[in-house]
Design a protein that fits this description.
Layout lengths: L9 H14 L3 H55 L1
Length: about 80
């Protein structure tokens, strides 16, 4: 797929050209690599947020289960005393 960007500051283009030259690749290869990295990092960040939400839901569920277990233990203890 082709992507065109207009009105890029000449300083930015020169900087990318220098970066590409240091890596012995073309500007196109450099920009493709940068854009790919940014896209995957964005997806990774979204996945990290979803994972964090899932972990938090699991923690909440485990806390509720621990409370219920404690209630059952107390109930059993009371019943055994009678």
């Amino acid at each position: 797929m082709e992507l065109k960007i207009r009105n890029v500051d000449p300083f930015v283009v020169k900087t990318f050209d220098e970066m590409a030259k240091k890596r012995s690749i073309s500007r196109q290869e450099l920009l493709n690599s940068i854009l790919t990295t940014v896209a995957y990092e964005h997806g990774k960040n979204d996945k990290e947020v979803l994972l964090e939400m899932l972990v938090q839901k699991n923690i909440n569920a485990m806390e509720k289960m621990a409370d219920r277990v404690e209630q059952l233990e107390n109930l059993l203890s009371d019943l055994m005393e009678e």
